[in-house]
Amino acid sequence: MADNKNTVLSARGLSVQYAAENPTLTDINLDIAAGEIVGLTGSSGSGKSTLAYALLGLTRRGAQVTGGKIDFDGHDLLALSDEELERVRGRDIALIVQNPRSALHPMYQVGRQISRVYQAHKDSGRTEAQQRAIEMLRLVGINDPERRSDAFVHELSGGMAQRVLIALALSTNPKLLIADEPTSGLDVTVQAQFLDTMWETSRETGTAMVLVTQEPGILANYCDRVIELDAGHVAKDVSASAFISASTKRSTQSPSAVERERQNHEPLLRVEGLRKTFPLRGTKKVVQAVDDVSLSLFAGESVGLVGESGSGKSTVGRCLLKLLEADAGKITFDGQDLAAIGGHTLRKLRQRIQIVQQDPYDSFDPRWSIEKSLLDPLVIHKIASPAEARGVIEESLSRVSVEFSVLSRRPRDLSAGVLQRIAIARALLMKPDFLVLDEPTSMLAPQDRHVILDVLKRLRTELGLSYLLISHDLTSVASACDRVVVMYLGQVVEVGPTVDIFEKPIHPYTKALIGAHLEENPETRRVERLDRVDLEGEIPSPIDLPVGCYLATRCAHATDACHKERQSLSPFSSHHDVRCMRVGQFELDEAS
Amino acid sequence: MIWRFTLRRLAVGLVQLSVLIVAVFFLIRLLPADPVARFVGMNASPEAYALAEQSLGLDLPVTRQFEAFLFGEGNDGGGLFRGELGTSWVTGSSVNQEIRQYLPVTLELITLSFLIAVGLGVPIGVLGAVNPGGAADKGTLVYGLFAGSQPEFSWGIIFIFVFFVVLGIAPGPLGRLSPLTDPPDFVTGAITIDALLAGRVDIFLEALWYLSLPILTLSFVLSGPIIKMVRENVAQTMNADFMFYGQAAGLPRGVLARDALRAAFAPALTLIGILFGFMIGGAVLIESIFSISGLGQYAIRSILAFDYPAIQGVVLTISALTLLIYLAIDVCQALLDPRVSV
User: Fold this and answer.
1) In this structure, which CATH number among 2.40.30.110, 3.30.428.10, 1.10.3720.10, 3.40.50.720 belongs to the domain B99-336?
2) Pair (A196, A328) in one structural domain
């Protein structure tokens, strides 16, 4: 617990309740010291966000603070009048929320939104406030802040909008910053850059911070102390390292037996030169979703497909099932060319390749019971007679460790984690050889994520199932895949065994991506690493792509040739391919 | 930016109008109607019929007629391109003048009705949203069911019955002024404005008095959708993340209220504009019930008399006005909301 002198905020016996429901928060006690970064965690529904807002004396509509006090700066916030609270909020305690694009007013320029908050609290003139807004935008790493301050929120990317929000929050030099899952929805590289900025700013200005998050990676890398909530109570209040070492350690997948005789066998799936563009309506331009993707996957192997949003991962997944027709390239599954088949043969083949989508609530009919949803494919494909069906379904469910009692339920009665496992069970009904998993864990809480990954690993051992795991979450891929394919702007930039990719990445993009990966280990905090490889700027638009290497504009190693010449994926060592003409030369750069 | 947007929209509007001109002109002539017979009577001699046909210009091939409609006949200085809508076959006077006379009557009626409907509907809608389940909200719900349950003309008749026949507190449906009062000089055509221009406050008040029931009827029907729309928008905005965030950033309450109204107002504006455009032609039943000779009445009369130039004139006027109103809404939208692409 923090020393009394340095305590910025302390809450005693805080309780919050939504009308006519059980209390959301009961008797919360916590202290936050000056300059301290406190992680606030807990499963969804545990009351994290409610507590974060309550620390501002704020509740969502329908909720009410029912008791307790919050000492801040010599006052009890809960005893202040609305006008007095207005003055504290935004000036002394600032908030960042998880959806920056909807938190900013859609009809005012973002610079104006920063300056009017500054004006409201600092008694400054309009010009001074505008200058402050631009200064803050520059501080949070926005290029050309003079121009950007005139932008409206719909013109900004999620990462940029989040920076605007932090600029707004910090413009008044608050004593305490409360950040409610500020990076959910951001790509890993953007997330890391953003959290770095926030961490550095907090350290420079001495601002204390409450960081609400479910990600153990973020807790380990950025927090000093962790408070865990469970059903509205404080379950733990310990140092970050104590918190992480208490939670189960997870290891990176060691190279499994799949290295076995790869040369001797034809791969189960082979993709060569896959290309897919989408026309832009009203123009002759196209969006290049997939530019040049080649990959292969052997029976019993699990491959991870990683990259940031917009890199074309999901499009590749859909082309594999022929849900999308590729523009060019060849996909061979078990010796059959996908382009050449149709009708009955395609239907038969699709039984062998199944897909699991990102949002389980979207992939089940909300009006159907789970039983009906699972029975339907069995009937359509005439896999089991009605008499056998129940047995097949139960076998499938037990493979994903879901109780049979769910059969009578409807999707909305189940949690996302359970429903996603049922989605996997549904795919298994077809007795597939190969599963495409499109971001299966990104909607789930970390605990549910681990369960899904365990299920996947088990299925591989038990059934010899192969799968392609499409994910932007490197932790999932690290723990469940033998090999990793890294995509950037529709191209494969690096392919290799998981261990190599994570420990010895070659391509500058992979290096940055892996560097942005927040390991659940407080000993190797990202902010304390000196050898970070960060990319500059933002991802180029997939409509007007650069001529040469797509990364050249953001790469520290780029030469003139990189800007002009198209790069090809070439072997770096056995089983490890890299798309970079300067492979092997960076070490020279770094040494000099 | 906004100028280019406006110009582009105007250009599109002109194209739409041109298509409409062609469509209206030829569609009327496809009607299985014989305006000449209507004009000279069923028992006219063939000579008289031929003469009448000639005088109406209906003896010419249809393409020639269209040419005459666009460019005028010979050197009479008429034609649509000179802004002339032709001569009414029934009255023999210029369609332009007749529309000039009837349009302001309708515009006056619906503008006043909208002022009242918006003036009452917006605050009531906001109240309902701010205090859901409160008196204003519940009243609105009942009223919404009630007002929407019957068309405006039946409300008109009910109001006449209640306020004029039973209670005797409202004037009868005798037009815009007492038949005994001399109307003010014709300037704008809107009687309230003309009365004020003539310095006759007594006539101004009398006109308002006589217009009270038609205005009550129209605004009663119109405020239903306006209240609902405003209520929904304001409720949605108040639950929006940016309002919550504004509160968390300690913005003063006045600023927050302005933020909410700005976000809520844009969609409501569209509805009001569409209703207004619709009412220019749609107030006809109210005009009939209250004996107000507005554009709708004129349209009905022209249609029943197969008065082609007048029908064309009315359709084009209503369309052009509607297009202008939609354009005005779009421009306001674009000024209010940067997300509307300009």
Assistant:
1) 1.10.3720.10
2) no
ipTM: 0.71
Chain B residues whose CB is inside 8 A of the A88 CB are 250
CB A326 within 8 A of CB A319: yes
Å from B124 to nearest chain A CA?
21
- Residue B159's contacts (CB-CB under 8 Å, 6 or more residues apart) are B170, B213, B216, B217, B220
- The two structure tokens encoding residue A481: 């895949």
| Residue A122: both structure tokens together | 């600092």
B81 touches chain A (CB under 8 A): no
Decide if B255 and A120 are in contact by the 8 Å CB cutoff: yes
Is the pLDDT at A571 greater than 90, yes or no? no
Check pLDDT > 90 for residue A122.
no
Distance (Å) from the C-alpha of residue B223 to the closest C-alpha of chain A? 27
Please tell me whether residues A434 and A471 are part of one structural domain.
yes
| First CA to last CA distance, chain A | 47
**What pLDDT is stored for residue A426 in this prediction?**
95
Q: For residue A469, which of A446, A503, A440, A447 has the smallest C-alpha distance?
A: A440
CB-CB neighbors (< 8 A) of B263 in chain A: 105-107
Q: Does A18 touch chain B (CB under 8 A)?
A: no
CB A339 within 8 Å of CB A331 = yes
Q: Would you call B250 and A99 a contact, using CB atoms and an 8 Å cutoff? A: no
- Chain A residues touching residue B247 (CB < 8 angstroms): 58, 89
Q: What pLDDT, on the 0 to 100 scale, is given for residue A355?
A: 93
Rounded Cα distance between A368 and A372, Å, is 6
Residues A88, B250: C-beta atoms closer than 8 Å: yes
B133 in contact with A, Cβ within 8 Å: no
- Structural domain contains residue A254: no
* Contact (CB<8Å) B247/A61: no
Please give the residue of chain A at the shortest CA–CA distance from B336: A107
Flag residues of chain B having pLDDT under 70.
Answer: 1, 74-77, 148, 341-342
Average pLDDT over residues A97-104: 88
For residues A393 and A292, membership in a common domain is answered with yes
Average pLDDT of every residue of chain A: 85
User: In terms of domains, do A294 and A391 share one?
Assistant: yes
Chain centroid offset of residue A458 CA:
24
Instruction: Give the closest-approach CA distance of A100 to chain B in angstroms.
Output: 9
pLDDT of residue A260: 47
Domain ranges of chain B: 2-71, 99-336
- Residue A368's pLDDT is 93
Q: What are phi and psi of B43, to 5 degrees?
A: -100, 20
Residue A15: domain span: 1-92+176-247
User: What is the helix (H) or strand (E) element at residue A498, kind and residue range?
Assistant: helix A498-503
| Eight-state DSSP code of residue B94 | B
pLDDT digits (tens, 9 = 90+) for A36-92: 999 999 887 788 888 999 998 888 877 888 888 899 888 888 888 888 888 889 889
Residue type, B278: F
pLDDT per residue as tens digits for the range A289-309 = 898 899 999 988 999 999 887
Q: A572 in a domain, yes or no?
A: yes
Are A120 and B245 within 8 A, CB to CB? Answer: no
Residues A300 and A361 in one domain: yes
Window 116-155 of A, Cβ < 8 Å to B: 116-117, 120-121, 152, 154
- The stretch A535-547 carries a mean pLDDT of 75
Total count of domains within chain A: 3
Chain A hits for B244, Cβ within 8 Å: 58, 60, 103
In a domain, A223, yes or no: yes
**CA distance, residue A60 to nearest chain B CA (Å):** 8
A175 and chain B in contact, CB less than 8 A: no
